[in-house]
């Protein structure tokens, strides 16, 4: 990193705008415009600046902690300077800058030129332009002509982040920021259907475009056999279409409505903590919701029944390395948050489509490439859902059942990353548990394959269509404050007791606990039932004297398969361990480093963990990795049924008993279920109103 202008540190003072804004409030439209104006003021007026992100520079924790404490106590809060973090290029150059703007003081505090080998995320305008450039290029047209496609065939271009391989040879250099476009056609027999699934008709021509010159720099021809052989494009055999849109299907006709009705509205309350920030309270939970261009949803200051649990929660990073070893597929490794951004890719969620029931939407304001505010309507939906039974017991002697439903609060955001979708949700329940759920869906990234061939690194999902195997590896950043800021991570393991006079039948087993003292990467061990817990050793449960804790339930996944010398491995610094524990440092937010596009590694959670810091009873950050090895199925095409992955945080010795005991019983007078006949016809009303309420309880 070279420094163009040295940063000027400024003292922390209250500014002119601070009384209007909360330090965690997402940047307002006015603040985005003001940030852009101040950055433009650094340069001659004819300079064309390409803004990549203009986002809140969150306050240092040392400043924010007393603010939040005062806020919770209802006392006057200290002034904290509002800052924005701005990433921009001088357009059509590699001159990447990151700047910190003091909005309170109306000045640019620091402005750094970054590089070499540091590249920023793409943006919506750039992607659209790259698509067009690929299709307008005469060389690309000449290659396409060799395919002798039917008259009127529509070509579709999917720009991909170029990736890194360390090659620096002429046109094959990865030193400069580039895009690799994969080309497809729409069904030539239905060319006017803009939503036709072009991924069923991949071409072997792949233009590479320079992000600086915005010109095609080379045209790759993709291997379509079982080896590295490249064949000259030849007349294309149009295969049958494979559409996902409903009008292309014969829809089943036996589905009856299932309406989620909340006649008295929802049980949550939502208020503004800033112009765009929201505080959510629901069933003893309270937290603040922010939204930014990179992470999308961010939760702050999560409390249950007034007890602090998490300072900050967000999806920090993801990596999707592909299995095909051949050029140019060997570079395919998407880091969708850092390369594009979960915020900027968020869907505009639609009532009655993406969430059911009584829905409250949150909208956001991000920035476009000109530095203008960009309205992002309905990027988060908040709603409740019934998730079956929460707990139940029947006393078989009396026949009396006690049962409660498991109501959940859901904050959901859906991102579209070109072909793929991720449905991302924080979920809270009445038993003090927090879940983070990812549903992977959308369309596989496909490539052409010759008929009659199969390969061990991918699945043929349609005639002539290969979907390569790939891993989805996510990193959830958890900044805990379990009953206070000083936490530790411990892991429990269950081991058989040795046979002895004490264990004469060889059946005993015991659970041991090991504290993690040093920052590093740690792994699950299912044979030992290894369970990681975030613990506050200074706060003891009055029932058993054990430290209060939250345990982490994360499903097993295969760690990154690319070898340790590969760029995929070096770049995805989080992808090699289930858990990373680091000491807290301001500005260490993204597990794969701040700039993932064509990154080279050396920054991210693996590097931070290598500091070997103390993480025992200190301010720590826990990075929870989870994912899937996606070996595509024919059933994943033309659109993939949701693959669900869920991480849970559950209280362990945190409460004095089941915290959901006070959930009102599940009764017919509340639930209003109806009897249904054997052929599914609804009958009005229904018996069983006293299913678990005893009229003459002795209590
Ligand atoms: Cu996948």
Descriptive keywords:
699 residues, mainly beta, Nuclear Transport Factor 2, Chain: A, Beta-galactosidase, Chain A, domain 5, 3 domains, 10-stranded antiparallel sheet, 8 helices, 31 strands, 9% helix, 37% strand, globular, binds copper (II) ion, Amine oxidase
Topology of this structure?
Elements: H1 29-40, E1 49-57, H2 61-73, E2 83-90, E3 96-102, E4 107-114, H3 124-136, H4 138-145, E5 155-161, E6 178-185, E7 205-210, E8 216-221, E9 269-272, E10 278-282, E11 285-292, E12 296-304, E13 307-321, E14 333-334, H5 336-339, E15 360-367, E16 373-395, E17 400-417, E18 420-429, E19 434-442, E20 446-448, E21 458-462, E22 465-468, E23 470-480, E24 488-496, E25 509-515, E26 520-522, E27 531-540, E28 547-553, H6 567-571, E29 579-583, H7 605-609, E30 620-630, E31 640-652, H8 668-671
Antiparallel strand pairs: 1-2, 2-3, 3-4, 5-6, 6-7, 7-8, 9-10, 10-11, 11-12, 12-13, 13-14, 13-23, 15-16, 16-17, 17-18, 18-19, 19-31, 20-22, 21-22, 23-30, 24-25, 24-27, 26-29, 27-28, 28-31, 29-30
The protein binds copper (II) ion.
Copper (II) ion binds at residues 440, 470, 472, 630.
